[in-house]
Design brief:
The chain has helices spanning 2-27, 81-84, 264-267, 358-361, 375-392, 395-409, 411-426, 428-438, 442-456, 465-483, 507-523, 531-548, 553-578, and strands at residues 88-92, 96-101, 107-118, 121-132, 135-144, 158-159, 163-165, 172-180, 185-194, 199-208, 214-224, 241-247, 254-260, 269-274, 278-282, 285-290, 296-304, 309-316, 319-321, 326-337. By secondary structure, it is an alpha+beta fold. Strand 1 and strand 2 (96-101) form a beta hairpin. It is elongated.
């Protein structure tokens, strides 16, 4: 009876694990977090359009002003539009390589130099933004105006150079673009990059050279298709979509919500609020628009069915610029890995931006590393892993040290488990004798078994509880290895060159299966089972080995080391039990 329960519990846990994974993929949003109260926005309802292109962007204006339609840009004097439209500026820092188009001042490509596209292409950085190989993912920004746009994706800028490189010893790199139209309105677009950082400050400055006030509303957006470059985990569903740090209706708090790209056609949204951010999310990486503090605006996301593209956009409040004056419209971007610490794994210091741990970038942005309801377990596990990494410089050894800590923390539970197994093996002849004596009389047999357990002082179910208690740690580590970009393509030793991917030669799963089998034999868990139960338990190591071939090598390493430590503990406890004297010879009644 007890052994049947153990098998059923184990199978139930596996089913719950996969149900949880499916739930996490579809519904794993974050709960609200507290924030300071914000006043209600005074933005007209007619300003709430969700644009597909620059021509449809509507400015968010103060109350009493009419909404502004953003139309095609005017001609820049002295510039050949056809020629300029094909020109890009090259930007390079210690961690990124970017291309900015002179037409529109758009970021058309952003390569992350420390993150190869795959283990097979170590010298090819992954282009988080880019066009080519089926990918379309760009950043656009501009300024809506009253009668015509002040700056849009059709605006052609001038630059002082075609290449900007972060100088040795410099903390910051500024890229300046300039445009002046026939009406005398001058626009400067500044991109500021920092050493060791994936943040970009985009500042648009408007100098009103006309004799009339000019109302301007800034906007920024990411546009992409559903193509993701780089290697992705096999047989695992990963999230691709929009993340929004949304102000909760009727509350002073915010919450992180996600919408898959595939769901945007039906779940498009736009929301007026103060503060917050919007981002495009994919496995390991995030591209976020970060408006200034205390700014008001409309956040929106939408699918374009015709072109199979998706947009995430922010439109800021309109501001009146007096004749002869200049107005600045800054905002921040984060285009890079979902780093959980202030330093990335290559050791680049944050410098000017104080590090790129997402919790340092913007309030709530760290929630894009989405562990779901297991966050209270996952975050301490990653913190401990990162500490061990600083000590060893190797994520594989960090996992082994973490396993030692976890097994140490659960030692008393494990001791109870192994003592229970040891006593079950020790009293196996007595248990078999009871079964043979009472045969099909299940009630009398159960009573005799309980009398034996009570007399000899052990509980056969004690062997199940340590496994059930440790299983949340197992699932949490699974999510840490799956979600943490710090472990992406991390080497361990010998043939294991990516702890976040399955073992290419299945050595670790086979070693795990062997350790599972030996541990089962040493424990004597099958000694008191009937033949059918024994067959099921003998098949379990094979099933678990096949199961683990799909898991990340780091997770299998954790479970293999856990088994080896458990086997050592079991040997010690069995020796202690052997020294406690022979089993009682009294017959069960």
């Amino acid at each position: 009876m007890e052994n049947r329960r153990f098998i059923l519990i184990a199978l139930m846990v596996v089913v719950i694990f996969f149900l949880y994974q499916s739930w996490q993929d579809d519904y794993g949003n974050k709960p609200m977090i507290a924030s300071n109260p914000t006043p209600a926005l005074d933005i007209p309802e007619e300003a709430m359009s969700v644009p597909d292109s620059d021509e449809d962007v509507t400015a968010v204006l103060p109350r009493g002003d009419a909404p502004l339609a953003l139309r095609a840009s005017g001609t820049e004097e002295g510039v050949d539009h056809g020629q300029a439209s094909d020109q890009v500026i090259l930007v390079e820092t210690d961690v990124v390589r970017a291309q900015i188009s002179l037409r529109g001042g758009e970021i058309r490509r952003m390569e992350l130099k420390d993150y190869p596209v795959s283990k097979d292409q170590p010298n090819t950085p992954i282009p988080l933004l880019g066009e080519g190989d089926g990918q379309f993912f760009i950043f656009q920004s501009g300024l809506a105006g009253t009668d015509s746009p002040v700056a849009s994706s059709n605006t052609v800028y001038r630059a002082t150079s075609r290449k900007f490189t972060l100088a040795d010893g410099a903390k910051q790199l500024e890229v300046a673009l300039e445009h002046r139209n026939a009406q005398g309105i001058k626009v400067r677009k500044l991109f500021r990059f920092a050493r060791g950082s994936y943040r970009v400050v985009v500042e648009q400055l408007v100098e009103n050279g006309t004799d009339a006030p000019l109302t301007v509303s800034p906007y920024a957006r990411f546009k992409r298709n559903d193509v993701v470059l780089g290697t992705l985990p096999k047989f695992v569903a990963t999230f691709l979509g929009v993340g929004f740090f949304e102000k909760k209706d009727g509350s002073d708090g915010y919450r992180f919500v996600k919408t898959k790209l595939d769901d945007l056609e039906d779940d498009a949204f736009d929301k007026r609020q103060k503060e917050g951010w919007i981002a495009m999310l994919q496995h390991y990486f995030v591209a976020a628009i970060l408006p200034p503090e205390n700014s008001e605006g409309v956040f929106s996301a939408k699918a374009d069915k015709t072109n199979q593209k998706f947009s995430a956009q922010y439109v800021g409040s309109g501001i009146s610029v007096a004749p002869g004056s200049t107005q600045s419209f800054p905002l921040g971007l984060y285009i890079g890995p979902k780093l959980q610490t202030g330093l990335d794994v290559e050791g680049h210091e944050g410098g000017f931006f104080k590090g790129d741990g997402l919790d340092n970038v913007a309030t709530g942005l760290e929630y894009t590393v989405d562990y779901g309801i297991l966050t209270p377990l996952c975050e301490p596990l990653f913190w401990l892993l990162s500490k061990f990494y600083k000590l060893t410089g190797n994520w594989g050894w960090s996992i082994i040290l973490l396993t030692l800590v976890v097994k140490g923390a659960f030692y008393k539970l494990s001791e109870a488990q192994y003592r229970s197994m040891g006593k079950m093996k020790k009293f196996a002849p007595r248990i078999q004798e009871i079964k043979e004596r009472y045969g099909d009389d299940r009630e009398r047999m159960s009573k005799a078994m309980m009398d034996l357990y009570k007399k000899e002082g052990f509980n056969p179910l004690a062997g199940c509880w340590p496994l059930l208690v440790q299983f949340p740690v197992f699932i949490s580590l699974y999510w840490v290895l799956l979600e943490s970009v710090e472990l992406r393509q991390a080497d361990f030793a010998l043939w294991i060159n990516d702890l976040s991917a399955p073992d290419p030669y299945y050595v670790l799963p086979l070693l795990f299966g062997l350790s599972f089998y030996l541990q089962q034999k040493w424990s004597g868990a099958t000694a008191t089972m009937d033949p059918m139960q024994q067959k099921i338990m003998n098949i379990m190591p094979i099933m678990m080995t096949a199961f683990f071939t799909f898991f990340q090598a780091g997770l299998v390493l954790y479970w293999l080391v856990s088994n080896l430590i458990g086997m050592a503990q079991q040997l010690v406890i069995n020796k202690k039990l052997a020294g406690e004297g022979p089993a009682s010879k009294a017959k069960a009644t």
